[in-house]
Amino acid sequence: MLKKKILLTTLVASLLTSTALFASTQTHEGESHLKLSHKEKAHTAKTHTSHWGYEDTKGWGALNPKYSDCSTGKRQSPIDIETHNTTEALTFKDIFVSYKDTKLDIINNGHSIQVNSDKASKAILNGKEFKLLQFHFHSLSEHTINSKYSDMEVHLVHQAEDGELAVIGVMIEEGHKKNDFMEQIFKHMPKKAGEEIIDNYVKLNANNLLPNDRAYYHYMGSLTTPPCTQIVQWYVLQNPILISKEQLEHFRELYKANYRPTQAVNNRIILKK
Question: Considering the entire predicted model, what is its pTM?
Fold first, then answer.
């Protein structure tokens, strides 16, 4: 059991720590970045050689044997959530977060804008504790509600002590007012892939990404990028947050279509709370 836990944790770590040393037309597996030593960078450059993009998401599974889940997996994400086909989660608990102020650590990783956490923040999801690793943005949204896309979606990626991943997905819609919290992020977005900005004087709190009403849909799924590993508990919030038209256009100057289309539900149960 311990060996299995170590292997799972190692797998998750490899998915969430890939370096972003590549040109804007290239991408690496995983959606996360942490600073690596020269030795670790050399190891990453040697082992993570399969580049992918959003132009041909159906072809991801053929790029690398490790990406086979992208083509053959039966619990892939994202999905279309049909509200009339959801089931009341009578035994599930409300989402509780304890997010702390953290310094700005933002990176353009080649396929999204990502903000790294110092892991002091956590969420309690259905009674289990998960540490916040990072959050990143997609445009359009990856999940759809009754086949409708939102303008954007932010994914808050968490990891439990046993290596299990949980992602809170929040829809982002165009509104009439500027979102002050999002402005802190968007005005610091690095334009070049691989570029990272760290500012100890800019403090962020991910609690500002969550709407007041945290009703959610829950299902078991996968990472939405290669290797599409099926180890994710998804909590997709029912209510969106708002940003201005100008902020939306500003993000789309960098990433206009960095989303994976919805995947087959395949008899999975979608809960609502």
Answer: 0.83
